[in-house]
Amino acid sequence: MLASLLLGRRGPSGFSWSSTAEEVTAGISAAGLTAIVTGASSGIGAETARTLALRGAHVIMAVRSLPAAQALRDAVFAQAPEAKLEVMELDLSSMASVRTFASEFIAKGLPLNILINNAGVMAIPFALSKDGIEMQFATNHVGHFLLTHLVLDTMKKTSHESNVEGRIVNVSSEGHKLAYREGIHFEKINDETVYSSIRAYGQSKLANTLHANELARRFKEESVNITANSLHPGAIITNLLRYHSILDVIHRTLGKLVLKNAQQWPNSNKLEHLFCLANRVRLRPAMSLCTHRQRASLGSTSAIATCTNHVRWPSEKAKDMSLAQRLWDFSIELIT
Ligand SMILES: NC(=O)c1ccc[n+]([C@@H]2O[C@H](COP(=O)([O-])OP(=O)(O)OC[C@H]3O[C@@H](n4cnc5c(N)ncnc54)[C@H](OP(=O)(O)O)[C@@H]3O)[C@@H](O)[C@H]2O)c1
């Protein structure tokens, strides 16, 4: 396994550690599908949006940095003039901005098959959002929770009318294990005296996974034809650590030697394949994995986003459905 990783040998899936998103999705059509990708102006979100658009999906790049997203959109148009790629403004740290984005999206009258809750900040100094919520929790979790809540009826309608399974993907992280000991600081979510930038990141990533789990449970209960999953994208060189000077320097120097770039994030090698199979047995449905065969058969939905690296070994907290329910109630209170 290690040799396969180090030498870049292809695994049973036919892909290696260095395979790119374009290579992994070659031959898969996403035509006829509409997707929203948050944080599509940089890193993993940019590459996900680009690849989905190249495969024929109508992609909404939901971003706060319009010029960066427009430049990426123009680069895709240069490569594929027929691509359907739109840039819309969204600041996840502001509930007003999320509501404006959702109402403008709904006003377009488009269907919605895929929602990729990807945007995120990591290890930032303590700050409160415009709504007075700790910034990492506000951006990474609350903004996505509200966005999902507001577009869910459109997704349900789309999956019902088209009979195509909808997909919600929360980009979480193995970093969810770094959350506070209690998991989520419900009572002191905004308390600066207990704030740790790394633990608060872990808390927000744990929330991404719990959110997906609770969504999946509800979809099953209501027989809704949508899946909700959380995933760990792997360790990828992006702009994520820009707020943490020490980690950023390590990431950009030593990391270059061993980490993947954004084009390589959705690959699958033997090592991941094994983890995939193991996880299929170990995890709850919301985090259950796709085999590579399933990846191909899911081509008409969002194989790109769902059948890649998932949260491999979720913490006990991530599997705790009573915690997921509590977070759901807490989040509903925050958004209403
Ligand atoms: N890279 C890794 O190794 C790794 C590992 C595990 C998990 N992840 C997860 O992967 C996701 C994507 O991160 P990345 O590595 O691609 O980092 P990135 O290059 O920094 O991209 C993050 C994206 O999120 C956007 N964003 C941040 N705050 C926002 C806000 N308030 N409203 C709207 N968009 C906002 C950023 O927009 P701006 O450009 O405007 O700031 C950017 O487009 C994150 O959820 C992260 O937790 C990454």
TrEMBL record:
Top-level taxon in the UniProt lineage: Eukaryota
SUPFAM superfamilies referenced in this protein's UniProt entry, alphabetically: NAD(P)-binding Rossmann-fold domains
Xref: Pfam families: adh_short
Matches recorded under InterPro entries: NAD(P)-bd_dom_sf, SDR_fam, TIC32
Designated name of the protein: Short-chain dehydrogenase TIC 32, chloroplastic
Source organism (scientific name): Eleusine coracana subsp. coracana
Lineage: Eukaryota, Viridiplantae, Streptophyta, Embryophyta, Tracheophyta
